[in-house]
């Protein structure tokens, strides 16, 4: 949900990305994986964190736009 048209929209929801990221963090914290698997999990976690940030940035932009629109419609402001 990025407001930057050069960024593709995430292909999963915020909730899905956050849930998968939580699982990855738990897996990394528990340890026991080979280095290659840990690196792959870390990279996937970075991707998921970026997706979550895109969703949050998009929500912030929409909220800011709604606040600005409401302010311009209110003659007392």
List the helices and strands and how they pair.
Elements: H1 14-30, H2 35-73
Helix pairs in contact: 1-2
Keywords:
2 helices; 0% strand; rod-shaped
Largest sheet: none
Task: Tell me the Rg in angstroms.
Answer: 18 Å
* Beta-strand segment tally: 0
Based on Cα principal axes, name the global outline. rod-shaped
Mean pLDDT over the full residue set: 88
What do you see in this structure?
The chain has 77 residues and is mainly α. The protein has one domain. It has helices spanning 14-30, 35-73. Helix 1 (14-30) packs antiparallel against helix 2.
Gist?
The protein has helices at residues 14-30, 35-73. It has 77 residues and is an all-alpha fold. The chain is rod-shaped and about 65 Å long.
